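[job 0412] stage=fold_complex status=start
inputs:
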Amino acid sequence: MKCEEFEAIGLGLGREGSVPLNGVDATERAAAIEHANACPRCAALQESWQEAQTELQALRVTTQDASTPLRVEMRLRQEFRIRHRTAKARAAAVVAAWALAAAAVVVGAVSLRNWQGAQHRTTQSASGLTKNASGANAAVQAGKTTNVIDSKSTNENALVADNSAGEFTPLPGSLETDDAAIVRVRVQRGALGALGLPVNQERAGEWIQVDLLVGVDGQPQAVRLPQ
Amino acid sequence: MRISEQATDDVLLRRAAKGDEDAFVVLYRRHQAALYRFGLRMTGNAWAAEEIVQDVFMTLMREPKKYDAARGALGAYLFGIARNRVMKHLERLPREVPLNGQNEDGSRGGAGVVNAFTPAHWAEQQERMERVRAAVLDLPAEFREAVVLCELEERSYEEAAQLAGCPIGTIRSRLHRGRALLLAKLEMLRDVPRRIGAAR
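[job 0412] stage=fold_complex status=done
writing structure:
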């Protein structure tokens, strides 16, 4: 073995028990020892390295129980908690946002459907009216006799309406006088009941205008519902 | 859920990634000491070693999916991150003054070897320790890494090569050069007090 070879593999042979031999076989080891015995320079080098190894060993011992201070673990735990709490909160927020968005879409879809339905119904009723109108025109053109009869009955209905709306209806128990004044008042329909007139109780709270024919004694004689 | 101490790193990491703090703590406690020792021996600075360990686990916390179990053990992965941090630290501070690490209670890092010897013996031991520490920290980073892994951590060439991410031959040659440089530096450091003594 040459000195260079000894330097490459021989230095690590000093502490057989603790240092791994790292592939140096027994033959090489024997050759290295033989070379160290024969070469004073390499023997001195090996001795020097053994001394250095003792010092390295001492240095190793001083740091072999070294461990990270507890504060590092505390810091890491804190960071871990913050990181994962934030992640959880973010996930919950994302889920809530998606749920809200889905709800908004559903509400929007239902509203749109309702609106479209309403639009459809309006269109249908409008077309129905047009049909009725055209049907009426057809009826007018169908026969004059029917038309005459219809118009007669319409006139009669209008007269009845005029009578009930435009003329005074005498109040029960009132006396006819020549001198009277017409007073227009706004009353609830229910108040007509007090004058002895029949009143629809469902519409008793409705405000209406009535003309009262008031006699000289100040008592109402008759009542009229203006148009 | 209770964490078993025997649970594998992969299982623990999966659980930690899902937010299991206990799993993360078990992982941390399992690996922190080796990483810290490596950082301390490479930088000679307890604060730097602490920062390095913290950085390693912050990286693991931030990006647990970066670890690929098919490419090796989690310990080796963490060691790789620590090694990168150490190298960055050494690049930033190429000639940092070696300091004795201080323990939690404020005592010196070398206090572990204090024993029943006399104060003179203890002082001599401390001086020797300082010499070795200074010599190791004065080595170039790649030689220092080989010396720390093979001499201080007593890892095999294969392990050291795997951790350093280089072929075994490279580790072997680095260690050879590192040893030679270390010997020279130790000789030099031993001679300084002798020369000072002789001058007096």
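[job 0412] summary: The radius of gyration of chain A is 59 Å.
[job 0412] exit 0
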